Amino acid sequence: MKAVARIILVTALVVSFTSSTYAHVAVWKALNNQAIELYQEGRYSEAAKVAEKSLKVAENTFVSNHLNIAKSLKNLAAFYYYQDKYSEAEPLFKRALAITEKAFGPDHPQVATSLNNLAELYRVQDKYSEAESLFKRALAIEGKVLEPDHPQVATSLNNLAALYYSQDKYSEAEPLFKRALAIEEKALGPDHPQVATSLNNLAELYRVQGKYIEAEPLFKRALAIMEKTLGPDHPRVVTLLENLGDYYQESDQKTEEKSLDARPIELL
């Protein structure tokens, strides 16, 4: 199983508009929020359909380089990413990056977010050299403009670590996963879904190296957090169940494995 990297979704900013465009802006914000809610429920296909409408409204409401268009582009690209529609996602991420760089300059946290998203898209397609340069640029920006314990830094660390994991560079991945986990536990609390993702990633790193004693408590803690916060049928919970199942199979804990396999799972 692959370590779980994260694409960052962007929520709407509060901005001022003229009364003539206010109704369209309200529609755009409502669609954007609806799409994110569907994403959070793991309903990626439905989220993408709503996000497509949101993008059309944005393009008909705002000027071509407006940041709200970039937000819609990023979110629609993310929903395509979660459905493995990488060719559809790439031009959207690139266009969002171009708008964001033009608006903020090269060293802004939102530019780092766009770089991170495009890099993750390259990582899952095994375009490792392209991904690594973008991940490192994102981290360099965040190192300049954010506190070292900011959650966005943890996301970039997690994703660079996932890149090294994908290349079997386990010794390089481990300290990054650990640092990401430490930042998220401090900033978000011990029971946040992002903490569960980092726990899963570190556990998966241990599993593929045969470090089963270290992996098991991390998998179990991650699963407990995800089931509590997202519900038992969410795709991220399914991923965790698959990873834990692999762990039990490889570590020859057959009784636990059978119990896990018997659980009803509804794939969305």
Describe this structure as you would to a colleague.
It is a single chain. The protein is an all-alpha fold and 268 residues long. The protein has twelve helices and no strands. α2 packs antiparallel against α3 and α6 runs antiparallel to α7. The model is unreliable at 8-20 and 254-268 (pLDDT under 50).
Give the biggest sheet.
none
Q: Report the end-to-end length measured between terminal Cα atoms.
A: 19 Å
Radius of gyration: 19 Å
Task: Describe the global form.
Answer: globular
- State the helical fraction: over 70%
Poorly predicted runs are 8-20, 254-268
| Proportion in β-strands | under 5%
- Total E-strand runs: 0
The number of helical runs is 12
Question: If you average the pLDDT, what whole number results?
Answer: 86
- Pattern of helices and strands: HHHHHHHHHHHH
Q: Which structural class is indicated by helix and strand composition?
A: mainly alpha
